[in-house]
Structure formats: structure tokens, C-alpha cells
Amino acid sequence: MGGGIMTRERVELRQVVDGLRSEGLLPENSDDTVTAFFENLHETQPWYIRTMVGFGAWLASLLLIGFVGSIGFAADIGFVIVGVLFIGGAIFARLKLGNDFVVQSALASSLAGQALLAYGIVEVTGGNDFESVLGIVIVLNGILFFVFPDRTHRVLSILIAMSSLGFLLYSWELNAVVPILGPVIAAAMVFFYQRQGVIIARGKGHLIGPLVTGLMLTAFGFLLLSTVYILPELRWEFAFYPRPWISSILLGALLLYVGTRVWPQIGDVAGSRERAVFYGLLVAITAAAWAIPGLLLALIVIMLGASSGNRVFTGAGIVFLVVFIATYFYGIQVSMLTKSITLVATGATVLAARWILLKVTAGPVEGGASHA
What we know:
Strand content: under 5%
Structural class: mainly alpha
């Protein structure tokens, strides 16, 4: 018996593509696409190099911005002019170039330009108050969300605008509205998340991702305010998050709505009895989380992610669940015994709901299989 020696020869990707082209296996007019692919392939850098480049870009940009800001201007209009130049230059650079240094520098320049522009407008108009600055920041970020061609910047625009709105509410002593604002933002997140396909089909896919992500992170931030604890020694009679049960009611209703969208995927062969049990379990979870609305928001995000196969949403919901439990346990102004009982009761309710749901939905599936 004779044996052959197998040799392995290193073949470059370009040689494979050239072979496919010579055999006519590539689509027509694909030369530009192939060329762009190889250019992007060679431009890709390791993550640690990109991290160092990004850090250097932020450092260089902030030093330049600090130098310009320390010079001072003869008139307040100078802040407006420099702010507009920073923002306009950042947009122009981001449109023309896409390397990591330019992307990070443009991001830092835009944020600094917004601060200078808002301050300059307030000084020119004679407002000179914090509320006017917040109002300008909200309007400016609402515009930049559509204008600035960068996903990260769009997410930051949502966060900055919504955070400014929260500061405005506290400044106007409307902190009683904050427990409503978090669930409203969460409802907007669910609304746009479920309509991503329609929005992408209309050619606005570059906006929907940052919008949903920004709304999700903003809702997380507002719900974390429910765990803020003010030391008694400060003698500050101010409630950051009064009546958190309002958020629990609203988020419980949103949880039921999301449940109606998720139910067809987990109980498509179940009957009305199983559906009633499912909704009853959601109501029980809402009741158990009466004082900890953040758990309901985490469950909503996890359900959305799990039902659509979105690992980012699922992971974000799990991370927020852990963070909220930690901040609730060490932050909110109730006794440790009350915190422990609340968390144990909620966790036990969720586990019991999972066990009951598996039992209820498994019965119809097995019955349907036996009659098949």
C-alpha cells in the first residue's frame, strides 16, 4: 500500500477571491465591494490599540478645549462662536473620516462645544441661570441626535437631554413627577423597540438603535434614584423619589403589556386557563415588587431581549437587576430586615412564577403531542 504525504500550503484570502472571480462565481460589478472589504480588513486594529487611540484622542481634545476655554473672550458672543465651531467641526470631521482618533476627538469636541454654546447663549440673552442652560442643552441635543452622524453620540444625546429634563424637574421642585417619568421613558422604549422593523424599512435604521438604547439607559438611571438615601445628619428634607409605588403600578401595567406580546411565543398551544395563570403571575410579581420598581423594569428589559433573541438587551436587564438590588440593599432608607424580606419575597415569587409557568405550559404541549 502506498501512502501520500499531505502538504498544507498557506493560501491568502485575496487569492481565494481572485480564484472565485476567474471562475465567474462572484456577482457582477462586485469589484468595488471587494476592494472596500480588503481596505477595511487591513485598517482593523486590535482592541487595545483602539482603546489607547481613543484615550489619546480624548486627552488631546480636552487639553485643547481647556486651553481655549481658559483664554477668555472679550465678549460673551465669543463662547457662542467657539461652541458652534467646535460642534460644526466635529460633525464635518465625523462625516469625512471614520478612524478611531477622529471619532473620539469629534465626540469630545462636540460635547465641549455644547457646553460653550449653552453658556454663551445664556450670557448673551441675559438669562444667567441654571434652568436656561438646561433648556438649551435639551433643545441642542434633540437637534444633534438627528444631525451628528455617530451612534455613540446619539445615545449620549438621549442621555444628556433626559438627564437635563430630570434636573429641570428637581429645579422646579416637581420631584413628584419623577416616579412617573421613569415608567413613561420605559414605555417609549418598548414602543420603539417593537417597531424597529417598520422604522428600519423607512430608512431610519441608523436612528432607532441609539434611540432605544438611550431610552433604556435613561430609564435605568431614573429608577436608580428610587434607592437614593439621604443621611439624617444632613437634615435635608427632600425626597429624590417620592412614592415609588407609583412607578411600580405603571411598570406593572407595562409588564402586563409586554407579557401579552411575549405570551404567543411561550404559550402558543395553551388555552385561556393557562393565559389567566400567566397574567396572574405577572400581577403577583408586581405586588411583590411594590416598593422596588427597578426589578420590574429589569424584568421588562429581560423579557424583551429574550423574546427577540437580543442578547444585549437581555444582558443589560440582568446587569441592571444586579446593580439595582445592590443599590437598594445599601441605599434606601428602610431597615435591613425590611430590605431582606422584600428581596426574598420578590425572588421567591419570581422563582415560583417560573415553576408554575413551566408546569402550566408543559401540559398543553405534551397533550398536543400525544394526539399528533
